[in-house]
Please model this.
Amino acid sequence: MERTTSFAMRATRPQAGALLELLKPITWFPPMWAFLCGAVSSGVGLFENPALLIAGILLAGPMVCGASQVVNDWFDREVDAINEPQRAIPSGRVPGNWGLIFAVLWTGLAAAWGAALGFWVGIATLVGLALAWAYSAPPLRLKRNGWWGAAAVGLSYEGLAWLTGAAVFLGGVLPPWQILAVAGLYSVGAHGIMTLNDFKSVQGDRALGLRSLPAAYGLHKAAIIACWFMAVPQLFIVALLATSGANWQALAVSLLIIAQLFAMVRLLKKPEELAPWYNATGVTAYVSGMMVTATALPSMVV
Model:
């Protein structure tokens, strides 16, 4: 600890690799997956324009999601100095105001990147970036309330990323209502996933006065809320698929929901212990259903 403090006092520029650490590559998968689902739902062949595919994936992951991670780390720096002093900012490997400077510059770069891919891509990018700042930064700091915080992250990681994927491959135009509806429903479901992610930090949230749903309502009640949020939107999606003639996709998503329900029953027995297990099983079934649904949308919007 003495060595880290000494380094923090001497350093004036970020350490090599510390800025990449702030971008947290491990968090990029959910929005990149949702982007791919959106791209598939457009009905345009993904590999007809590989450069566009790569540009869109980079936008959803390293750019927008990465920006949100930098913003969050900057505004959590005082808390992290107590709970996780080894992180890039509190350790001094990103000293002074470099974290804030990087957050602002990366946000601007992400906004420009999105705008270059089309009007509605740019709009979705700006909304996602605005939610990232609202989630972490005062005065809003949506993460202080589990209802608003989980909603902001779910919308950014699933709905806006899905919309972006569809808009990129549709030439930057606003996708049809069916795509918007599905993206919105999966965003609502992601609220439950984000609630389960808060289980790992419930003690710290309570100590710091953050009202995540597990901290505010207790683990069992929060798990019940999360399960309802995840299950109900998928039922609407099955209904939409079935009434649109996408029969095999409706059946496949139904089976995936059944698998999730069995996992939910187990989760509710020991929510604190089994939340990580559910994230590896039930959430996998959830995101698999996203791609199955995406394959049905091209024929539904013709």
